Amino acid sequence: MSRELRRLLVAPERLAAMPAGDGSGGLLDLEPEEAHYLERVLRYRPGERLAVVDGCGRLWTAVLEPQGRLRLEQPPQTPRIRQEAPWPPLLLAMAVPKREADLVWRMATELGADRLQPLLASRGAPGERCPLPRWEGIVREATEQCERLWRPSLMAPQPAEAWLGRPFQGIALLATTRREGLPLCGGVLGELVDREREAALRGGLHLAIGPEGGWSPQEEQAAEAAGWRPVSLGESILRTATAAVSGLALLAHWRALSCASCRQPSP
User: Fold this and answer.
1) In the chain, what's the furthest Cα-to-Cα distance?
2) Structural domains of the chain in order of their starting residue, each with its CATH number
3) 216 CB contacts (<8 Å, ≥6 apart)?
4) Which of 31, 115, 164, 241 has its CA 20 to 30 A from that of 154?
């Protein structure tokens, strides 16, 4: 049985900068951490094959060469696989918890989130940290591990009230608790009528998850004034990480069932 082709995510700018060549793929110099990952972690040896992805829907096969280089088996301009972006896009906005943010970004990547937005909520954990370089590394590794061709975008943290109050396109669901008559998130998705479904297809599905202490009244008011729909994720009071993963799984399931053949509309 042939060895599984493990994946290496390489920035699209590096691949685009490679010369066109004469029909061969050409050589790509590995960065030190990439060489360490392949040669020390995966124990690859020269002559062994792997897959290179750029996080923008493209995949090449490559061979590890001596002296920390990869030889692409297809020209940079003509990858072996080219995949359109999933549509509609799924956005997860989450108030940064004191712990478990790393876990959420990894699992959100695996579940198919396309955009990740950290929020700084007024009732968030005191002293929450936002180590963006580490989070970027987690998203990159999760993209490689789960064999996605599209890498999620991780945005810079924003104050929750101001971000939730901005105009948006699509369908936006605000997960909250301790309010009577809240519809279930899954029920709202299942009952989207044609016009709302078209809105979701145009602008995507957004889900906002609050901090352990819940959204402040000002944050909820700003969100609802901008058009966010309050929803429940069930009777239990969930931790932020649990709510984020369970809510995103509902959105991913809805997209898989309703929009399997959807593609980004033409401009």
Assistant:
1) 67
2) 7-82 (2.40.240.20), 90-258 (3.40.1280.10)
3) 121, 122, 123, 161
4) 31
Contact indicator for 186, 175 with CB cutoff of 8 Å: no
The type of residue at 162 is: A
Residue type, 85: A
* Residue 266, pLDDT score: 42
pLDDT at 182: 93
What CA–CA distance (Å, rounded) separates 135 from 133? 5
Q: What is the pTM of this model?
A: 0.88
Mean pLDDT of 18-29: 72
Mean pLDDT of 168-184: 92
pLDDT of residue 199: 66
pLDDT at residue 175, as a whole number: 97
Answer whether 201's CB lies under 8 Å from 192's CB. no
Residue range 79-112, pLDDT digits in tens:
999 999 988 899 999 999 988 999 999 999 999 9
Contact 61, 74 (CB under 8 A): yes
- H or E element: which one contains 265? none
- Alpha carbons within 13 angstroms on the beta-carbon side of residue 79 total 17
Distances (CA, A) of 205 to 86, 88, 102, 267: 12, 7, 22, 19
Angle, CA of 129, 157 and 244, to the nearest 5°? 85
Sign of the alpha-carbon torsion through 37, 42, 43, 48: negative
